[in-house]
Target: Bacterial Ig-like domain (Group 2)
Amino acid sequence: MSHKRKSLLSVFLCIVLITFSFQVQTTYASSSNSVSFVLLSKYNASVDIGNEFYILAITSNGKQPTWKSSSSSIASVNTYGKVTAKKAGSVTLTAKIKNAEASCKVKVNKTNITISKSSASIERGEKLKLSAAASNKAEITWKSSKSSIAVIDDNGNITGLKPGETTITASADGSTATCKLKVKAPTVQLNKTNIKLYRGQKVKLSATVSSGISPSWKTNKKSVAVVDEYGNVTAVKNGTADITATVDGVSKVCRVSVEKPVITLSAAEINLKKGTASAISAQVSSGNPPTWSSSNSNVATVDSSGKITAVKKGTAYIYAAEDGTKARCIVHVIE
Model:
């Protein structure tokens, strides 16, 4: 075989190989002297959002074709056939030269997002970690529909702020996955629900709150009993008061009864000569000292310790009083 024939055969084989490598789907334009064509490395493609790939083109004139996308918002293509997927949808990419063109149909896949929980519940102050992944490994953006109820940071960490419901959304490339979140009201338990005190006595109330939040304390009758921010109750005077511990709208009540004391005197009736003195004692169930008084200080007087002094002939009542309770001793002053 002559050298010329071998060369022609080699060229022919190259053309055949190229044709089979680049599937033929092109528009030809022919004249008496030439045929125009565009061959592509692929005519159909599927790609995830954010990914890139190349479409190689061979043209009859050996020049780079002009590329065009039917929707560059879905996928764009540059001068060299580099394709960039932007959003889900289908697009046709066309390589064109004079008198010939070829197209590649590209499907940009919708991004699928999976989330670790579709529903969850927490209490105020409690934290929860959510995770999510995109099918194309795109970065996840987090959002709470009601940030007054719960907030979420860029890493999926949720903090409950107050009772209510919100939707946590994980987003990427226009696709979303959601978690319905409920921030529950806490449970509140008191160590005492009923207590009895005397005036001046103190007691410590404590609250067990499921969320760990400290309650606010309040009394409905400050004249009867008061309470500080730590639950320390002080009885003020005889009567009934309600002490309330509240967290996030949930309240528990302790009824405080400030009871009248019982007073017992060492003598119910005595006789004293004018100018003499005698002391009586008082036992008060509350442990508080009584207040002493005389019904007629012209006849008999009494000091703060219960010492009675006879002033002149007559009868007087000596009272020992404590928080609304009185006990009396009848004093007869004789000459």
Q: What stands out?
A: The first helix runs from residue 3 to 21. The longest strand covers residues 100-109.
